[in-house]
Structure formats: structure tokens, C-alpha cells
Please model this.
Amino acid sequence: MGLLDGRVVVVSGAGPGLGRETAAAALREGGSIVLGDLEPARAEAIRAELDPSGEHSLAGPLDITSEERCQALVAAADARFGRIDGLVHVAAFDTAVGGLLEGGFEDWDRCAEVNVKGTLRMTRAAVPLLRVRGGSIVMISSVAAFRPRLEVLRFAYGASKGALFTAARYLARELGPLGIRINTIAPGWKWGPVLEQWVREEAVRRSLSLDEMLAWMHADVALRQLASDADIANSVVFFLSDLSSRVTGQCLVVDGGGYLG
Model:
């Protein structure tokens, strides 16, 4: 028996990396998955890779800045599986780098529109199905919300992820009486395709070898090993499952001990 037997989990932002690993973990634990992504062909390719028969999966277009697109994915999940038990918010705008004194506020607007308002749009669209049997929502925040790093300054992105943490606490109160739990996970650097590309580019920019760049990153975490996308996905499964049936409004940092505040 799996931890998610018979449950249907919607994943927003189902591209390579955490989205894919979350979908894989949900399938491994007996669940069915609904994958939404700005690039539907990419979501479909991941779906076909993870569940070739298509018996336990569905993929479709999703733009969380559009209320209609959010509702359409929920409707597709309802038509196919007749239920939603879990919602995992992976979709985000995460390329904003810099501080207050650099550039304009375009990145702030984009981070707010996607990371905060987009997440709330998708949440509101899913609530009618989640409340039928009770369900679990997992928001992906970031250690960037709690630990400013001058060497990698991500002011707008970190602030938006901090807003998600606050939103989750309010929503835990609002949605709790409907039987819906909501929690956040705050990864630090998480090893996967996205971070690997950044590390290679940053190593070149700093005139470091790849090994030197990784050694610098590993030295920053207590366990001397970065968490992977799969590690984060395992924590998502915990929040989706009955193992956390009395946990709501909480934030779990999964970063190998980089943030110990």
C-alpha cells in the first residue's frame, strides 16, 4: 500500500526538476496525477514518461496568471478522475535576481503576479473539489524568504516566497473548517536540472571549476550535501498523506541544514 493510494494530486508547474519529481513520488505512492504547465507538450512528455499507460495521469496547459486556465485544469481533473485530494504549487517565476537599487520594479510585479496571486488563483479554483473529502495543499516557498544572501541577492523572489508563507498561515485558518490543510516547504539550493545549469553558468562567471563551485555550496550546509528535487518531493508526499493529518499552517525547511535560524 502507498501513502497516497486512490488520491488525485494536481501539480502546477510540472516541468523538469521539482514538478517532475513530485509527480513521480505521487505515482510511486499510489496516487494519480494531473500535471499543469505553461508548456503543455513538456507536461505531456513527463506524464508519458512516468505513466506510459495513462491510467493514472493527465496533463494539460496551465497559466496560473489566468483564472480561466486554473479553472480549466481543475475541470479537466474532475472530468477524468472525479476528485482532487492534493494540490502542489510548484509553478513560479524564479529568475528575478538583484536588490532594491538595481533596475526597476518589473521583477517585483512579475513575482507578485505569478508566485503570490497565481498561487492563490489556483488554490481558489481547486477548493470546491478539495473540500468534498478534505484535502491538502502544499506551497513551495524558499529559504530565500528567510535568509538574504548578498552573494546571490534575490530580493523580489524572496519577498514573494515570504508572502506565500504568510498566506498559507491565513489560509490554514480560513480553509481548516472545510477540511483542507495547507502547509509550505522551503527548499534551499535543491539539486536538479535547474540548479545544475545555474551552477555551471555561475562557475564560469566566477572563474571557478565545477568542483570548486560545488565545494563552496556544500560547505554552506550542515550536512555537507544539497537537498535534491527528489528530497523535496518526499517531503511533499508527507504533507499530502495522512502522516500529517493534524498538521496545517506549518513551514518545513528542507535544505540540508543551510538555514538554521
Notes: The beta strands are 8-12, 32-37, 57-61, 86-89, 135-140, 180-187, 190-191, 227-228, 251-254. The longest strand covers residues 180-187. The chain has one domain: 8-190+228-254.
